[in-house]
Amino acid sequence: MTLSTEQLIADVADVLYLEPAEIDYELSLHDQGMDSVRLMDLVERWRTAGVERIDFITLAEDSRLGHWIEVMEKFQAGDEVTS
Known about the structure:
Helix content: 40-55%
Largest sheet: none
Mean pLDDT: 92
């Protein structure tokens, strides 16, 4: 199973109590209300959805939504992710 970009954005919006259109792709999600508890919730959601390689550290290192989308695409394609 793959996680669509639309679902990733919807999940992020859900944990931040925002509408998907309200999220700034280039602003740190930390600055938009993301905290470690919400981040762990997303990691677990996405692992359950089949993105088993996703982890807290990878997402926490660069918390911009645009970066997360790139990371997810690479993980789902089987590519290595480098910071």
